[in-house]
């Protein structure tokens, strides 16, 4: 297990359910709609649309094959764990990110740090990966047609997840990124029409992802949760 919580999910019922939830064609529109519904007027992050948005991002990663398996498999495990909390006996405390943090902090910082299955710890791992995806998608949106996606992806990774991975994982990731398809292939995977439409929709979607990331970052920083082990 790395500092980012990078693990391959186990087999069994939860793994099969997650695999089924992540199947189907990726739709950038669905991701846009999910993250658009995440933030309330009170700047609370609702967990149900947040997790729905993550299932869409996982489908995007899985369309790219084994290159992103080390991230998509981990994300599936984390989203499943959060869904379990959101549907469990204490689900009223897992409606929003803010309610979850308040509830789990009431148990004491020591207990929170000692619980690997806590919602705060799990969301923190998704939060770190969300920054990488946000930066990568923004790089795809603003780059030229001939830009190397391996460079875009590596730059995004180095500015986000790399800080939480050991050297061997960082090395494997940057080598894997060299096999990424061209930019046009990525835009086709968005499943919204021509490349120009994909770029335009990325311009709509990314600010909503940035908003969710920013609120989460501020909340976790306020409560000193950004370095949970």
From TrEMBL:
GO biological process: negative regulation of interleukin-1 beta production
Entry annotated with the keyword Acetylation: no
A Pfam family recorded for this sequence: GLTP
Listed GO CC annotations: cytosol; endosome membrane; Golgi apparatus; nuclear outer membrane; plasma membrane
All copies of domain Glycolipid transfer protein, residue ranges: 46-191
Intracellular or extracellular location(s): Cell membrane; Cytoplasm, Cytosol; Endosome membrane; Golgi apparatus, trans-Golgi network membrane
Substrates-to-products reaction catalysed: N-(hexadecanoyl)-sphing-4-enine-1-phosphate(in) = N-(hexadecanoyl)-sphing-4-enine-1-phosphate(out); N-(9Z-octadecenoyl)-sphing-4-enine-1-phosphate(in) = N-(9Z-octadecenoyl)-sphing-4-enine-1-phosphate(out)
Gene3D superfamilies the UniProt entry points to: Glycolipid transfer protein
Membrane topology reported for the UniProt record: Peripheral membrane protein
GO molecular function: ceramide 1-phosphate binding; ceramide 1-phosphate transfer activity
TM spans (from-to): none
Keywords, in A-Z order: Cell membrane, Cytoplasm, Endosome, Golgi apparatus, Lipid transport, Lipid-binding, Membrane, Nucleus, Transport
Entries under InterPro entries matching the protein: GLTP_sf (IPR036497), Glycolipid_transfer_prot_dom (IPR014830)
Family: Belongs to the GLTP family.
Name used for this protein in its record: Ceramide-1-phosphate transfer protein
Source organism per UniProt: Calyptomena viridis
Gene: Cptp
């Amino acid at each position: 297990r790395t500092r980012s919580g990078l693990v391959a999910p186990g087999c069994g019922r939860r793994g099969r359910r997650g695999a089924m939830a992540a199947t189907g064609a990726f739709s950038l529109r669905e991701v846009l709609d999910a993250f658009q519904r995440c933030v309330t007027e009170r700047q609370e992050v609702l967990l149900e649309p947040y997790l729905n948005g993550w299932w869409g991002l996982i489908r995007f990663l899985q369309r790219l094959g084994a290159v992103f398996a080390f991230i998509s498999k981990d994300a599936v495990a984390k989203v499943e764990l959060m869904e379990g909390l959101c549907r469990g006996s204490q689900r009223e405390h897992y409606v929003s990110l803010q309610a979850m943090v308040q509830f789990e902090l009431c148990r004491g910082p020591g207990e929170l740090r000692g619980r690997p299955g806590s919602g705060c710890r799990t969301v923190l791992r998704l939060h770190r990966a969300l920054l990488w995806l946000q930066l990568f998608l923004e790089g795809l949106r603003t780059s030229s047609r001939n830009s190397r996606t391996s460079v875009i992806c590596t730059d995004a990774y180095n500015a986000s997840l790399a800080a939480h991975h050991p050297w061997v994982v960082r090395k494997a990731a940057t080598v894997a990124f060299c096999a990424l398809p061209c930019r046009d292939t990525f835009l086709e995977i968005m499943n919204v029409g021509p490349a120009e439409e994909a770029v335009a929709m990325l311009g709509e979607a990314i600010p909503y992802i940035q908003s969710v990331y920013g609120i989460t970052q501020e909340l976790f920083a306020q409560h000193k949760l950004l370095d949970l082990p």
